[in-house]
Design goal:
The protein has about 100 residues and is of the alpha+beta class. The chain has helices at about 15-25, 65-75, 95-105; strands at about 5-10, 30-45, 50-60, 85-90. A hairpin with a 2-residue loop joins β2 and β3 (about 50-60). It starts with a strand and ends with a helix.
């Protein structure tokens, strides 16, 4: 276990994704946020199947910071129920993990 996670969040616009990225990195809650645009999402919402073009943020952070990251995302997000999920790093290159360690609170 490395103690690092990747948090995934979708947003409606690239501008919102950039705002979340800049806030998290600026506050040292994340070392890096990659924005993938566009992604096509198909999902069930309020009983209906919907599709939307979204942006996907891949956020690299510490597991212990998840609560703060989640709160920051919710404060900036437009969706009623934003996707905020995390997966642990199982392993990673030593140099990259050291860089993460130095870049986050």
């Amino acid at each position: 276990m490395t103690g690092f996670i990747q948090v995934m969040v979708t947003t409606e616009t690239k501008e919102q994704a950039r705002g979340i990225a800049e806030s998290l990195v600026g506050e040292k809650l994340a070392a890096c946020v990659q924005i993938l645009d566009p992604v096509e999402s198909t999902y069930r919402w309020k009983g209906e199947v919907e599709s939307a073009r979204e942006c996907l943020c891949l956020i690299k952070t510490r597991e212990r910071l998840f609560g703060k990251v989640e709160a920051a995302i919710k404060a900036l997000h437009f969706y009623e129920t934003p996707e905020i999920i995390a997966v642990p790093f199982v392993n990673g290159s030593g140099e990259y993990l050291r860089w993460l360690d130095e870049s986050i609170l």
